[in-house]
Every structure is written in structure tokens, then in C-alpha cells.
Amino acid sequence: MSRPILAVVHPRALAHNLAQVSKHVASEKARAAVHVWAVVKANGYGHGLDAAVRGFAAADGLALLEVPEAVRCRELGWQRPILLLEGFFKPGDIDVLARYHISTVVHSHAQLAMLEAASAHAPIAAHVMLNSGMHRLGFQPGEYAAAFARAQALLAAGKLSVVGKMTHFARADDDLAVTRAQLDCFARVTAGLPGPVSVCNSAAVLSPGLVAAVPGDEQWVRPGICLYGASPYVGRDATALNLRPAMTLHSEIISTHVLPAGEAIGYGYAFRTDHDMRVGIVACGYADGYPRHAITGTPVTVAGVRTRLVGRVSMDMLSVDLDPVPLADIGSRVILWGEGGPSVDEISWSSSTIANDLLAGLTHRVPRRVDVAD
Ligand SMILES: *Cc1c(COP(=O)(O)O)cnc(C)c1O
Q1: Which residues of the chain have a pLDDT value below 70?
Q2: What are the angstrom distances between the C-alpha of 356 and each of 158, 202, 336?
Q3: C-beta neighbour count of 318 within 10 angstroms
Q4: Which residue's alpha carbon is at the smallest distance from atom 15 of ligand 1?
Q5: N or C: which end of the chain has fewer CB within 10 A?
Q6: 182 ligand 1 Cβ < 6 A
């Protein structure tokens, strides 16, 4: 018998969430058509690239980071655009991009120089990134026009097929004023420059008014986390946004104990019983990707009943309070997050992180299975 932990991925939930985002974007009544890049980086936020490509069949494009992963999307049959969010890394990547029709972000002078030095290749779509204040990737406002002009020269030379404009928000999840300031910077710097624009991540896409405020005749949004059924906002559950969890993390109870009051549980004796208490041991730990910093009280569902984590999460196991679930025993089904259990958002709030971290952090030790009912 294999260890009972399993992540079930629901492609139908991926498709539902994409439809919700598209519906929301349409309701924004932006001045131009809005297209969706479904972000599938980090192995589809941990869901598996195959399932993501299948679930997002209705998306206008896919966005990710690694060149081999982009090629894999082509091999899986994806025919629409694919965008490399950090762009390419080495001159040798350029031929692969041209051969597989992979679009690229251009955020540095080094990338422009590599394109200028490349020998003839099929033209590539490029999106020139502005650093509008996040200070991660992109050209500074003062150098953007010159970088854009170099890209347009590459367009005229037949090395590029499209030159777009993009930027990324630092605080779309929690500070609308900062986000508006970044958008103002983008609008000012790119005013009068032709080409498609791409600005909004999940938090911006779902913030009323932001998609409509983006300038330009052709807009591409870049939602990631919300497509997987998790919330981009702390304290606001994804169900309130009509999103469905696309991953359910299951395991089972593999041991139970009845402990008298005053006994301690697990490493560091971080939890002590204050009454006679029954606890269950679950085959799931931080080496599976469950957060080690989840606190006592973090919700977990055992045999369909919501109960709580107790004590410290160890590498391969965690402990749960079985008092609310007297019928639970060895083999009882445990849902750590997802359909029928707590949301991955709740687990992230109980462990001082975000759902992206938990989903993308699920380790190779956990087998993924695509939901056959889907
Ligand atoms: C990851 C990423 C996104 C998607 O972000 P979410 O917050 O998951 O929606 C969008 N754009 C860029 C450049 C990214 O790196």
C-alpha cells in the first residue's frame, strides 16, 4: 500500500475559474478587448502543467517562466500565444523562441543586445517591461522610450513580430493608491507608443475599476492564483469571489491515541492536552509541502468533520484533535485543503504565508491525480 497522501486536481474548477475571471473582465467594460494570459508558472501553481493546459483551454494565452516548460505546452498541443514572464536568459534561447512561437518579456538592455546580435530567425513577439515602482524587473521610466525604440527597430528589421508594453503591480492586493500611482506612471511613460498592453495580475484583475483604467487599444491581463481557486487578498476567501478550489490535498489517519490531560504532543512538546483527549496522526508533513509554521487551531477536515491541527507539524506527519470526530479511526479520510475541507486560503492565513506558496510548494513526494469525474 502506498502512503495515503494524494493531491487531486480538478480541471473543471480551473475552467470555471477562468470563466469567472473572463466574466468579471467583460463586466469591467474596458475601452478595448481584453485577452487573458492564464499564468501557469511553477508547474501550474503546483497543479501540473498538463492539467493546467487542459483546464485553461479557453484562455487566449499561457504565461510562464522556463523555456523547456513553454516547449512542453507546445508539445501538449497548445497553439495560442505563450509568454515568458522573465523573458529569455541566454542567446541560445532565441532560436527556441522563434521555432516554437514563444513570446517574451524584454526587461533589460542585455536582452535587447542579445536580440540585436542574433542571426536571422523567425520573428518573435516581445513585451517591453516598465519598472513602474516595484523595482524588480523592467526599464526605468526615464530609459523606457529608448528601450522601446530599440525594440521597434528590431520589429522593422523583422526580428520581432509584435512590440508590446507591460508592467507589474507590487501592491494590487492591499493598496489601491500605490497601484493607481504605478498605473499612472505606466500611462504617462507609454503614452503614444503603439502595441498591446499587459498590466494586471489576479489582485488587479479582480479589483473593480482597474482593468477599465488601463490605457491602450489591446489589453492582456495576467491572472494566476485566482485561476486555481485561491484568493489574492488576505482575509477574503475565494468562495466570496465565486472561485472553486482546483486542488484537494487528501491523506488519512494512520494512528490514534487517547491522551490524559497534561500530555504533550510532537516535537518541542508544542501542544499540551488540558483534558482527556483523542488525537489522530495524519500522513502529511512539511516534506509534502504542508506549512511547518501552521499554528495549533489550523482547520483540517477528518471524516467530513472540521477539526483542528494540534502541535508542531513535523516532516512527515501532523496531529489533529479527534474529539469532534469520535467515529474517526485509522484509515479515516483527511482533507488538508480543497473541496470538502478548509480552503488553501485559510491554511495560508494560519501559517503566515499566501496560497501561492502552499500550492506551488507541494513537493514531488505527493502524487497528483487528475479528477476523473472532471
Ligand atoms: C506570477 C505573475 C503573475 C500572476 O500573479 P498572481 O498574483 O498569481 O495573479 C502575473 N504577472 C507576472 C509578471 C507574474 O510574475
Answers
A1: 1, 374
A2: 38, 11, 16
A3: 28
A4: 85
A5: N
A6: no
Closest to 280 (Cα-Cα) out of 221, 241, 234, 336: 336
Contact assessment for residue 94 and residue 111, using Cβ atoms and an 8 Å cutoff? no
Model pLDDT, residue 1: 60
Instruction: Decide whether any atom of ligand 1 lies within 6 Å of the 223 Cβ.
Output: yes
What is the 145 CA–ligand 1 centroid distance (Å)? 24
- Regarding the beta carbon of 167 and ligand 1, being less than 6 Å apart is answered no
Task: State phi, psi for 163 to the nearest 5 degrees.
Answer: -125, 110
Is 286 among the residues known to form the active site? no
Report the C-alpha dihedral over residues 150, 152, 157, 162, rounded to 10 degrees. Answer: 130
Cα–ligand 1 centroid distance for 354 (angstroms): 13
Q: Is the CB of 82 under 6 A from ligand 1?
A: no
Give the distance (Å) from ligand 1 centre to CA of residue 39: 7
Spell out the long-range contacts of 259-266 with Cβ–Cβ below 8 A and sequence spacing 24 or more.
264/311, 265/310, 265/311, 265/319, 266/311, 266/312, 266/314, 266/319
Own/partner pairs for 27-34, CB < 8 Å, 24+ apart?
28/208, 28/209, 28/211, 28/212, 29/212, 30/211, 30/212, 30/214, 30/219, 31/212, 31/217, 32/216, 32/217, 32/218, 32/219, 33/218, 33/219, 34/211, 34/219, 34/220, 34/221
What is the set of domains in the chain, with CATH numbers? 11-232 (3.20.20.10), 247-370 (2.40.37.10)
> Which pLDDT tens digit goes with each residue over 43-72?
999 999 999 999 999 999 999 999 999 999
Active site residue 267: yes
Residue of the nearest CA to atom 4 in ligand 1?
224
Task: Give the global pTM.
Answer: 0.96
